[in-house]
């Protein structure tokens, strides 16, 4: 009984956090997606068919899907005036530290010395724009207190470690960047432009990121108001 109480409390807290973080800040644009996210997080077992499987490939898309979960928020979703979401948020419906995250494509991993929850993987030649270098960014891989959930083989300060597509990078977490103020457990994944001289640009600016839709073969651009849940329509 006590365990159930704690479990329910945890679900309640997580739901409130997600709802609080997204629901009251977002314009109509992403409100429908918030409804889906809250429903999913409350009862993930009832909505298993909203999830996309880790390492699956939709059609002939170049990237593998990075984890197991439901695509909750899209590229260019807006949670508050002037804000534009630079990537996609994938919710597992599990606790932090449970759901593995994998590299979507061959590349070279960097984890800066002060990164607790993030890695960035350099892809020397963009499969959709050959000759252009791009980066893939994965974050929230730490627990609520900022304890890293990144694979031990990629300690802080790692640089240019080759990771083939499908390499285990770490576990999905809920670290917001501030200890004790967790977000709902999810992976934020984005595709970041190169600055032209071999360095990644600031991933917080949407203009520095690319619409991930063609890379994953999924409708991930909020501007297109895709039907929910987001699923691969070209899967047999
Ligand atoms: Zn995000």
Give a description of the structure.
With 236 residues, the protein is an alpha+beta fold. The protein has a single domain, classed as Glucose Permease (Domain IIA) (Distorted Sandwich), CATH 2.70.70.10. The protein contains three helices and ten strands. Strands 1, 2, 4, 5, 6, 7, 9 and 10 form an eight-stranded antiparallel sheet that branches. A two-stranded antiparallel ribbon has the order 3-8. Strand 4 and strand 5 form a beta hairpin. The longest helix has 22 residues. The mean pLDDT is 91. The site of zinc ion has 5 residues, from loops.
Level-1 CATH class name: Mainly Beta
Q: Decide which structural class fits the backbone.
A: alpha+beta
Distance between the termini: 43 Å
CATH homology superfamily name: Glucose Permease (Domain IIA)
Please report the number of helical segments: 3
Rg for CA atoms: 17 Å
Report the mean per-residue pLDDT as an integer. 91
Return residue spans where pLDDT drops below 50 for at least 5 consecutive residues.
none
Number of distinct beta strands: 10
């Amino acid at each position: 009984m006590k365990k159930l109480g704690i479990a329910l409390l945890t679900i309640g807290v997580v739901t409130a956090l997600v709802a609080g973080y997204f629901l009251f800040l977002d314009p109509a644009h992403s409100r429908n997606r918030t409804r889906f996210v809250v429903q999913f997080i409350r009862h993930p077992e009832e909505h298993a068919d909203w999830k996309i499987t880790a390492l699956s490939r939709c059609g002939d898309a170049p990237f593998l899907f990075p984890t197991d979960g439901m695509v909750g928020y899209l590229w260019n979703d807006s949670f508050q005036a002037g804000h534009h979401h630079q990537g996609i948020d994938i919710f597992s419906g599990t606790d932090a530290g449970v759901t593995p995250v994998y590299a979507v494509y061959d590349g070279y991993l960097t984890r800066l010395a002060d990164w607790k929850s993030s890695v960035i993987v350099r892809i020397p030649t963009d499969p959709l724009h050959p000759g252009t270098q791009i980066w893939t960014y994965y974050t929230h891989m730490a627990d609520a207190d900022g304890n890293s959930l990144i694979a031990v083989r990629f300690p802080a300060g790692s640089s240019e470690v080759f990771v083939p597509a499908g390499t285990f990078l770490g576990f999905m977490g809920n670290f917001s960047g501030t200890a004790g103020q967790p977000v709902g457990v999810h992976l934020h994944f984005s595709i970041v432009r190169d600055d032209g001289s071999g360095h990644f640009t600031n991933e917080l600016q949407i203009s520095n990121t690319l619409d991930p839709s063609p890379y994953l073969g999924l409708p991930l651009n909020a501007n297109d108001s895709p039907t929910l849940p987001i699923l691969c329509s070209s899967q047999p």
